[in-house]
Write a structure and sequence with these properties.
The chain folds into 4 domains: 34-58 and 307-402, conserved putative lor/sdh protein from methanococcus maripaludis s2 fold; 63-72 and 227-303, Efflux pump adaptor protein, beta barrel domain (Elongation Factor Tu (Ef-tu), domain 3); 82-107 and 193-224, OB fold (Dihydrolipoamide Acetyltransferase, E2P) (Beta Barrel), CATH 2.40.50.100; 111-188. It is of the alpha+beta class. Strands 1, 3, 18, 19, 20, 21, 22 and 23 form an 8-stranded antiparallel beta sheet that branches. Helix content is 26%, strand content 37%. The protein has 6 helices and 24 strands. α4 (111-142) packs antiparallel against α5 (148-174).
């Protein structure tokens, strides 16, 4: 009897252990995340500095890569000198100062300025008297009252004085003194030096109190609104260059900004290093550019075909393959606070990796061969792609450890 009771209790306990718990039966693993997807919170998105863009179409073939510099045409660079020597009495010149045509940039003083003005006024008065004498002698000669010899002498003196007054007038104009308004009461010992063009002062060679000679350069002014690109092309490639060809170029210090130009002139002299200078005009002027900036240019020497391209930094490599990340539709999820039932809604940014093939690279862009079904209207991560890749790799490692 005792043995039967023990057997009954043992069978009852075993039957209870085999019965599944309702709590355990309701636990299920979350659905697996689609492969190649990576999610970023709003904070992660902003911290990574992600910038979105789209696939572009560019002509990446039949181009010739050359180097060059930004240069200024001779008519846009002026060396300012004084017509006559003198002591600098005032100037506000500074390198980088922007000046307008006709603006006073310096004042110089010389006693010779006084002598020129005095000589002009004196000879002008004599000319007035000589003109009347000449007219009188003409009348007398016509009436046979005076001899022709006297008339000839008066005519010679009159003509000589006219030339002298004319020469002094030109000297005054060169000194920016108006002969028409000059009187004995406004004779001055100083003259102004004016800016001959609009531009920026690039060099200053004077200071107050310094004596400048006519051949001395007071300052240099450059008008940077009409810069051109001076390209260096090797002799073997010059036959490919034609006037009017399009040029794409970037400055060395800002490789992410592409500008355009066109071939304007081709030099016909080969330099000792077997190169030829090619002059190109910029399609869009930029007053912020500075002469002698180095640039890298691509001359479109053939028709070529346009292809799909992305900035180089938009393409990342992993395990021997090349990927880009496209933005999927963002979704929101609820973040619970302090383990409670209620929480706040935060937006997540979802990106999908897409395998691509790389083509040629130039000027900061790379040709991409896209898979079938790819929509060029999709937004692509063009900055921060490595951060997205790192997040994806970390997520995959965490999932591997969790299993």
């Amino acid at each position: 009897m005792k043995n039967n009771l023990l057997l009954f209790l043992l069978l009852f306990a075993l039957s209870n252990c085999k019965q599944p718990s309702s709590e355990v039966a309701t636990v299920a693993h979350p659905p697996a995340k689609e492969e190649g997807l990576v999610e970023l919170t709003e904070a992660q998105f902003e911290n990574a500095g992600i910038v979105l863009g789209k696939v572009e179409m560019k002509n990446m073939s039949n181009t010739l890569a050359v180097n060059g510099v930004l240069d200024v045409p001779p008519q846009n660079m002026v060396s300012v000198s004084a017509i006559m020597g003198g002591f600098v009495t005032s100037t506000q010149l500074l390198q980088g100062l922007r000046v307008k045509k006709g603006q006073v940039i310096a004042t110089i003083q010389n006693l010779d300025f006084i002598r020129i003005q005095s000589a002009y006024l004196e000879n002008k008065s004599k000319l007035i008297f000589m003109e009347k004498e000449y007219e009188r002698q003409v009348i007398l000669a016509g009436e046979n009252v005076s001899t022709s010899k006297v008339l000839q002498e008066v005519t010679a003196d009159y003509t000589s004085l006219q030339a002298k007054v004319g020469a002094l007038e030109e000297e005054l104009k060169l000194l920016h003194i108006d002969p028409l308004t000059l009187t004995k009461s406004n004779i001055r010992s100083t003259v102004n030096i004016y800016a001959p063009i609009d531009g920026s002062v690039t060099a200053v060679n004077v200071n107050i109190g310094k004596y400048v000679q006519p051949q001395d350069v007071i300052c240099e002014i450059v008008d940077t609104e009409h810069l051109h690109a001076e390209l260096t092309v090797f002799e073997k490639d010059i036959s490919k260059i034609k006037k009017g060809q399009k040029i794409r170029f970037v400055l060395v210090n800002e490789s992410n900004v592409e500008r355009t130009a066109s071939v304007y002139l081709i030099n016909h002299q080969i330099a000792p290093d077997r190169t030829i200078r090619v002059h190109a005009h910029l399609d869009k002027e930029d007053p912020n550019l500075i002469p002698n900036m180095y640039l890298k240019a691509f001359i479109e020497v053939g028709e070529g075909n346009k292809t799909t391209v992305l900035p180089e930094r938009a393409i990342v490599g992993a395990e021997g393959k090349q990927y880009i990340f496209i933005k999927e539709k963002a979704h929101a999820h609820e973040e619970k606070e302090n383990g409670g039932a209620e929480g706040t809604t935060a937006e997540e940014h979802v990106f999908k990796s897409v395998e691509v093939q790389k083509g040629i690279s130039e000027n900061g862009y790379t040709e991409v061969i896209l898979p079938k079904g790819f929509h060029t209207k999709d937004e692509v991560v063009i900055k921060g792609a490595y951060d997205v890749l790192s997040k994806m790799n970390n997520s995959e490692e965490e999932e591997g450890h969790s299993h």
